[in-house]
What we know:
The protein is of the alpha/beta class. The chain is 39% helix and 23% strand.
Amino acid sequence: MSAIASPLLQADSIGLSAKVGSGWILQHISFAIAAGEFLGIVGPSGAGKTSLLRLLNRLQDPNIGDLRFRHAPLESYPVIALRQQIMLVGQDTRLLGMTVEAALRYPLQLQNIPTSAQDDRIRPWLARLTIPTEWLGRSALELSGGQQQRVAIARALIAQPTVLLLDEPTSAQDLGTAHQILAAIRAEMQHRGLTVIMTNHQLELVAEFCDRVLYLEQGHIKLEGAAHAVPWDDIRDRILAAKQQDVAEWGEA
């Protein structure tokens, strides 16, 4: 585990067992992240990446180990308050039956922010993520998957969490739009000190935007290092080999 003098978020020997059978989804996971850092988590499908993000805002709790936020155990925070500080944008983005505008306002209403101040938060992100104002009255059924994804990311950024957890945030975007989204997030990190942890199968985006990388395989951290220094060719080869093994065992999906 990298030595960080005063970590914002820290995991020590985390383990998460499978619901069925005796296997482990995550084993002996230890890492720390500093305030204002952009951490990328990569690895083959089924490596435990999404499960790790879910642990970090208590959508699940580990079976063993210790998770700490600002030096206090995660479980010491009220769950709702914790999720306002450590916010997850998952792969399955939902507008909860709301229009786009209602979905963007919802986290601000929970914080009792006046409507005029809500407008000041929302307008800049419509521009930064190229969300047209004509979308505001639309429901989820009127948006593509990629459009819903952009709205979900905007909603999280508008809420101004301390830590933003992104699970494959560009999976439904073309490369140009993905680059625009991550550049906007990176600018927000520099402006506000936001901390970001992201899983992403597009390794070129992780290499470009992240400060540090964890490579997960079969529930273990197999490699950790600065994004500019990790052996990307080796990581690509290992992910490809794992995919080929899955195909050999289970056939094409």
